[in-house]
């Protein structure tokens, strides 16, 4: 409902306003906020920005998409403003919305459907279906910024395995690098890194390493190929005068240059560096950090020229364009950085995806990225950045993960137990329990903090106990979880869902943000507050199973659940058949153990489910039809003298 008489369309400022169908507004990321967005005169700024998550500030990604649900109806509509410039979006109580980008065009896509889940599915089909992660990515990951050396990594791995905890992947942050330079490793502190990686691989585990976009621009000539090759190929971002722009990030040289991934030669450049690095360090995936672009100086070491591009008449969110970033007047192949800043990460991620297809042919690329834009999910997964070890950030991890499921990046997680500040035993136990049900389940923290891996001697036994319970349950449920990601990759469905996606006619479900669904079949009831030993949870109408003997019959009401420190409550919805595996500590063993079915009958004594399963790593399993797919159905069980007959319909090729 737009009155074009109020439209403003000028060189560096556009404004368009519209009324909204209701106050039920979702999307508009990336921000630290509730899943349902505040319409009480609220500003949301979109400018990819290197900052620890906090309220009322832009974060790492730009997703100017929202959907609304009509009052007293399930009908929903969604809107995407496909614009890469910095912008503000205002929500007001009317309810109404106003877009204020500072450049580009007003390119709107509008979606209308019978329920919010279908609107989101239509949106994801537009921007691109998400990647299918490799099976090993579904395991538990341990990382930290500040490993002292390889022995430190070995100690953490050893005590995790001794505690009988699942562990799939070890990660390195920038501490492994020589002088914090990309595509190198420290041959003193991390001399044994190649051998350690080989040990991981022989035991069925995996290894992921970090790369930042900035490369050192201060090494002696002909000693650092990432810089020397970039000069020869002319692929670095230029300043306003056409010289290579020099910033400062982690490199010890104090000078950092940035590849221009909009340059047609950038992928070939990135591939060359990655292949050289892979000849020494046999990583299984890459972690792209600082790719907003982040910069430790404002603009460049030489500053930025004075111009209306650097200092536009309207500044969204009062965040100056060069703050902790690159000059807006910098030149990329696609145009001024003023226009391409929010696109930098998706160009880098696509180049990395194409690179890994050649470095590891036939395998699914695994890329974790911090900065995002609509369509990033085609290439990468995401984590929610540098959260703190506080209860508030544990609580806000749930809406963040729900947000990224509607943004088409469903394989997402927060740093379990928090990145900044020292965690506590109680907080880490609760966070490990919730984090076991993040799609991306990784414990990671900063170098100033204590070891917080779940078997760390800094904690009491409750952290190991809570971790073992939740992670063992996660690994058992991977067949179901993997099937949900097959559906996300193939049909654009969400994986982690708010309750109202499954129960759109239930008005109470729209108010719930402390519980979430895995698909339509599992509900997770986490503890998100300190000192709590019970969960007061809402169960939509139907039958809910805690196990084969404990069943809840709900008419759309709240129930109290015991929540001891070593347990997380997970319920199965009646009407679902959930495939699950026998217990295992490594995802590779899921190809060896038995699979089982939990048949949760609804009030009509019926249930349905399905299972997708392939080799867990091939990029073309679907194209070559090299997978198993089974559908399960139980019907009219009450007439069969309590025997549950399950019909199984399968399509199978090779695996």
From TrEMBL:
Residues 20-87 form the Glycoside hydrolase family 31 N-terminal domain. InterPro entries: Gal_mutarotase_sf_dom (IPR011013), GH (IPR017853), Glyco_hydro_31_AS (IPR030458), Glyco_hydro_31_C (IPR048395), Glyco_hydro_31_CS (IPR030459), Glyco_hydro_31_N_dom (IPR025887), Glyco_hydro_31_TIM (IPR000322), Glyco_hydro_b (IPR013780). The keyword Glycoprotein applies. Keywords: Glycoprotein, Glycosidase, Hydrolase. Pfam families: Gal_mutarotas_2 (PF13802), Glyco_hydro_31_2nd (PF01055), Glyco_hydro_31_3rd (PF21365). Residues 130-484 form the Glycoside hydrolase family 31 TIM barrel domain. Residues 492-578 form the Glycosyl hydrolase family 31 C-terminal domain. It comes from the Eukaryota. One of its GO terms (biological process) is carbohydrate metabolic process. Belongs to the glycosyl hydrolase 31 family. This is Lysosomal alpha-glucosidase-like protein. It comes from Dinothrombium tinctorium. The lineage of its organism: Eukaryota, Metazoa, Ecdysozoa, Arthropoda, Chelicerata.
